[in-house]
Design brief:
Layout lengths: L2 E4 L2 E4 L14 H11 L6 H17 L5 H8 L3 H7 L3 H9 L10
Antiparallel strand pairs: 1-2
């Protein structure tokens, strides 16, 4: 599997650039994905989405569907796409250190 380095930390990723080991998640990873996704500045709203994704994943072993993410965070789907232009599945899940979603996220 590919390895990438950012901020002095190495990360093992899959062919789509998602973390293979959630234990490697840290602020260097967030900073890396922020740059790749074209996100200028991390806000409390970004953090709220990341935290909600991680919490749901820890409890259920999968990423939540978009409507559950929207309900959990209180953000309409439009706002989630404004925060993560590549979408909740690609951008938000990647930034949260989750595996690539297989369903409709």
């Amino acid at each position: 599997m590919p390895t990438l380095e950012h901020g002095g930390t190495s990360f093992e990723v899959d062919e789509d650039g998602f973390l293979l080991n959630a234990k490697e998640f840290n602020e260097n990873w967030v900073d890396y994905v922020k740059g790749v996704e074209g996100i200028g500045e991390m806000t409390d709203e970004h953090r709220k989405v990341i935290d909600a994704l991680q919490e749901y994943y820890k409890k259920n072993g999968i990423a939540p569907m978009v409507r559950i993410l929207s309900k959990t965070t209180g953000f309409p789907l439009k706002r989630i796409y404004e925060l993560f232009p590549s979408g909740p599945g690609k951008g938000a899940c990647k930034m949260a250190g989750l595996p690539k979603p297989t369903g409709c996220v």
